[in-house]
Automatic annotation (TrEMBL):
<dbReference type="InterPro" id="IPR040476">
    <property type="entry name" value="CSD2"/>
</dbReference>
<dbReference type="GO" id="GO:0003723">
    <property type="term" value="F:RNA binding"/>
</dbReference>
<keyword id="KW-0694">RNA-binding</keyword>
<dbReference type="GO" id="GO:0008859">
    <property type="term" value="F:exoribonuclease II activity"/>
</dbReference>
<dbReference type="InterPro" id="IPR022966">
    <property type="entry name" value="RNase_II/R_CS"/>
</dbReference>
<keyword id="KW-0378">Hydrolase</keyword>
<dbReference type="Pfam" id="PF00575">
    <property type="entry name" value="S1"/>
</dbReference>
<feature type="region of interest" description="Disordered">
    <location>
        <begin position="734"/>
        <end position="768"/>
    </location>
</feature>
<dbReference type="InterPro" id="IPR050180">
    <property type="entry name" value="RNR_Ribonuclease"/>
</dbReference>
<dbReference type="Pfam" id="PF17876">
    <property type="entry name" value="CSD2"/>
</dbReference>
<dbReference type="InterPro" id="IPR012340">
    <property type="entry name" value="NA-bd_OB-fold"/>
</dbReference>
<feature type="region of interest" description="Disordered">
    <location>
        <begin position="1"/>
        <end position="22"/>
    </location>
</feature>
<keyword id="KW-0540">Nuclease</keyword>
<feature type="domain" description="S1 motif">
    <location>
        <begin position="653"/>
        <end position="734"/>
    </location>
</feature>
<dbReference type="GO" id="GO:0005829">
    <property type="term" value="C:cytosol"/>
</dbReference>
<protein>
    <recommendedName>
        <fullName>Ribonuclease R</fullName>
        <ecNumber>3.1.13.1</ecNumber>
    </recommendedName>
</protein>
<dbReference type="GO" id="GO:0006402">
    <property type="term" value="P:mRNA catabolic process"/>
</dbReference>
Length: 768
């Protein structure tokens, strides 16, 4: 007989209302554990479950084993130390309201995919008192969700916390002039109908232009009409392509009038509550084309006899909190955007230009307010202490990465020459010491080159490059990491609530999947609940220079969790840090602005600190800005895909060297390394065999030959079809399949697994 939980399902399991009323010799069944987790998503940690069922001593060890088994079986997943059913909605989720049921109750789907299959339906609760947000059909909302545990009807109920701003009526389309001289709008999104434009509403649009239009009320007969609001340019230009992504992902890109007015009315900061650091030769080191400069650095040897060989490293960050105060129009707009979004030839900023490119840009030779941290390191790279200061600074030099690196490499110019010995060499000496600490910490070291698209003056693609990774880049990166750590440590020590940058360890299910894959290559990954980045680094080092180096790096990357923002600290697995918070880019990330406000409040550094109202909302804010970050990444990726697809549209039938970037039972995804673009090869076009999908080995192999294709294989492909608007390309495989690594035994095991999976509904191979 299993133990029974009584009382409220969503209360604190540690209270009398929900404490388990059980006999000491009973243990809960797996179903009761899963039911409790479903009903208490915000109190589903291992300790919470043990307390709810009054488990002690050996029973807690038993519970730990049961929970590990459920994770290994793929029934449970773990995020931020909270367990959840795989495919379950998070306790706080973004929902799209799509309709009503027979009783008039609003129904919603999650805005992002949850597991596989049909998305769960959420019944939206409306407050009887009339207080709180009142959503309607078509709204996107942030809501707390609760499982219903009913056999029929919606799987969840939801309580609305926030309604996101509705999109305007404007839609995107391609302006077309038909043979009869009439004008039509070809929609970018399939769900939009075709529109007619009368000549008086053409607004200068030409055939093939991407335009923003306002649809008119539909008439009873014929297609609806519209008027052109804005001409965004040629469909193949970057400006137009990025605008598609901006609209498709609901990215706010026009600042409201009150936000602009507020930013223009801001007065430059004064010396009130500030230390005068204007004589300290801090320098900014950024990309050559950077338009704003929000961080500056300086270093000097530590003169303390007790710390021989040590250094003092200083990082100064633009004091955005001096201008953007909680609850203002500027602040509300910044939170809605969450972060700046970077496209190849445009930036959608989090803050207006008056703030980001002027008052908060650490311009050379100009007084600027900053929040600075001074850190003392020992000769072996250990941070001994640090202190934060609210200052007025004056940048001694604006440098590009390549410019600073050239000076260190012996080729100084007119700007770097005078500061080479006094500023640049001490910075590089300090970096050498910080690197010792980094090497000792052993963060995850993945070799994944980043590509950059260079555009022509007309906005089309010129070429794609892999920028050289310089020590100057690594220096700034390590200085910023240490400043971020110092911010988190200070706020924790002051017991000040903050938003951490958290990165969970790979789930047990992902670890096991990776372990099985590595076994096919003759590599091993030790089992253990406490994984360390060094274990992954050992594997990566073992394949360095080998043919499968790219494959292993790719699979290790895919095994990692996604970093997020949260007031609950679980550490940062990838950086191998116990506590970490984003502090160094408040111009472009709202998370950093929160950390700045927290430091100001905790250290008594003057006005602009974190308020109690903000502290109470930090969990919701963490969810919001984690979502805007994912939104930005998706929009940036979509824009690159569309640009490259348009660039290659005239090269149909050309051959390309490619690399397999994904394997599914439906076919192969391939990437063109020269362009960083992805395309697809349907399995139905792979000739000569019956191809079977092996999930463990990330491969498709022929049933008769045993030969096939595996993730990261280098192949030759032919471009067959391009859809620039969708950013999609289809390829044909030209390279013959190869014998896959592993013994015959492992091959037959894979074949058996694949056949077993194909015996299940919905899983099929292809015969050619």
């Amino acid at each position: 007989m299993a133990r029974r939980i009584t009382g409220r399902t969503h209360g604190d399991p540690r209270t009398a209302d929900t404490r388990a009323k059980v006999k000491d010799d009973y243990r809960p069944s797996r179903d009761e554990i899963l039911r409790y987790i479903a009903e208490n998503p915000d109190r589903a940690g291992k300790r919470d479950i043990a307390k709810a069922f009054a488990l002690r001593g050996d029973d807690r060890i038993w519970l730990k084993d049961i929970l590990r088994d459920l994770q290994d079986e793929g029934v449970l997943t773990k995020e931020r130390k909270q367990l959840a059913r795989v495919g379950a909605l998070p306790h706080v989720a973004v929902l799209d309201i799509f309709g009503r049921d027979g009783d008039g109750i609003l129904l919603a789907h999650p805005a992002e995919a949850v597991g596989t299959g049909e998305p769960p339906v959420v019944s939206i609760r409306i407050s009887r008192s009339g207080s709180g947000p009142a959503p309607g059909i078509g709204d996107r909302v942030l809501a707390k969700t609760f499982p219903t545990n009913e056999a029929t009807g919606p799987a969840y109920t939801g309580r609305v916390m926030k309604i996101f701003e509705k999109r305007t009526d404007a839609v995107l389309g391609v302006f077309r002039i038909l043979q009869d001289g009439t004008f039509r709008i070809e929609p970018v999104e399939r769900r939009q109908p075709e529109l007619i434009v009368d000549k008086e509403f053409q607004n200068g649009a030409r055939n093939g232009d991407l335009v923003e239009v306002e649809p008119a009320r539909a008439s009873r007969y014929g297609l609806p009409r519209a008027k052109v609001l804005n001409v965004l340019g040629s469909l193949t230009s970057e400006k137009a392509v990025s605008m598609i992504a901006i609209h498709a992902h609901d990215i706010p890109h026009i600042f409201p009038a009150d936000v602009i007015a507020e930013s223009e009315a801001v007065k430059p900061a004064t010396m009130d509550h500030r230390e005068d650091w204007r004589d300290l030769p801090l320098v900014t080191i950024d990309p050559a084309d950077a338009k704003d400069h929000d961080d500056a650095v300086f270093a000097t040897p530590d003169l303390d006899e007790k710390n021989r060989g040590g250094v003092v490293a200083t990082v100064a960050i633009a004091d955005v909190a001096a201008y953007v105060r909680y609850g203002t129009a500027l602040d509300r707009e910044a939170l809605k955007r969450g972060n700046s979004v970077y496209f190849p030839d445009r930036v959608v900023p989090m803050l207006p230009e008056r703030i980001s490119n002027d008052l908060c840009s650490l311009r050379e030779g100009q007084d600027r307010p900053a929040l600075a941290v001074r850190m003392v390191f020992s000769a072996d790279g250990r941070k001994l202490r640090h202190s934060f200061h609210r200052v007025m600074m004056k940048s001694a030099a604006k440098l590009a990465y390549s410019q600073a690196q050239a000076a260190i490499d012996g080729v100084p110019d007119d700007k770097t020459g005078p500061i080479l010995d006094t500023v640049l060499k001490p910075l590089w000496d300090a970096y050498a010491i910080l690197k010792r600490g980094r090497d000792g910490r052993q963060p995850l070291e993945l070799e994944l080159p980043e590509r950059k698209i260079l555009l022509k003056p007309d906005g089309t693609v010129d070429r794609v490059i892999v920028p050289e990774r310089l020590d100057a880049h690594k220096l700034i990166e390590e200085f910023m990491i240490q400043a971020n750590v110092a911010a988190a440590e200070t706020l924790e020590a002051k017991k000040q609530t903050l938003v951490y940058r958290v990165h969970d360890a790979p789930s047990l299910a992902k670890q096991e999947s990776l372990r099985e894959f590595l076994q096919t290559l003759g590599l091993s990954l030790a089992r253990g609940a406490q994984m360390r980045p060094s274990q992954f680094n050992g594997i990566l080092e073992g394949v360095r220079g080998a043919d499968n180096e790219g494959l292993v790096n790719e699979v290790v990357l895919r095994s990692q969790s996604q970093a997020e923002y949260s007031p609950k600290n679980i550490g940062h697995f990838g950086l191998n840090l116990r506590r970490y918070a984003h502090f160094t880019s408040p111009i472009r990330r709202y998370a950093d602005l929160i950390v700045h406000r927290g430091l100001i409040a905790a250290l008594g550094l003057g006005p602009g600190g974190l308020t109690q109202d903000e502290e109470a909302r930090l969990e919701d804010v963490g969810v919001l800005i984690s979502g805007t970050e994912r939104r930005a990444m998706a929009a940036e990726r979509d824009t690159v895909d569309r640009l490259i697809a348009a660039y290659l549209a005239e090269r149909v039938d050309d051959r390309f060297d490619a690399r397999i970037s994904g394997v599914t039972k439906s076919g192969l995804f391939v990437q063109l390394p020269q362009y960083g673009a992805d395309g697809f090869i349907p399995v139905s076009t792979l000739n000569g065999d019956y191809y079977i999908y092996d999930e463990t080995a990330r491969s498709l192999f022929g049933e008769r030959s045993g030969k096939g294709y595996q993730l990261a294989d280098r192949v030759e492909v032919r471009l067959v079809e391009v859809a620039p608007m969708a950013g999609a390309m289809r390829f044909e495989m030209l390279t013959d399949p190869k014998p896959l690594p592993g013994s015959k035994r492992s091959f037959h095991k894979a074949k058996g697994r694949a056949r077993a999976s194909q015996s299940r509904p919905g899983s099929r191979g292809r015969r050619r």
